[in-house]
Amino acid sequence: MAQYKIEISASAERQLKKIRREDTVRILRSISLLANDPRPIGCRKMSGYDDVYRIRVGNYRVIYEIDGKQITIVILKIGHRKEVYR
Known about the structure:
Helix content: 10-25%
Structural class: alpha+beta
Radius of gyration: 12 Å
Oligomer: single chain
Strand order of the largest sheet: 1-5-4-3-2
Number of helices: 2
Largest sheet: 5 strands, mixed
Order of helices and strands: EHHEEEE
Shape: globular
């Protein structure tokens, strides 16, 4: 299986900068693991979208889109579980 390229949107990057350093390290580690396995155990498909998924990293959620044609994962949103779905 080919390794996926990971892109982080500008809004997700801004959201990531607002998170504490310890949590940021855990989130970035989880995002890097998506390159080898874009649908890891525990990921959930977002209803209403074709290829949008979320993973749980403690109290934070990472929402991402998988583009199978270009072998790319685009990180759309990163945030606390209370706020990320708004």
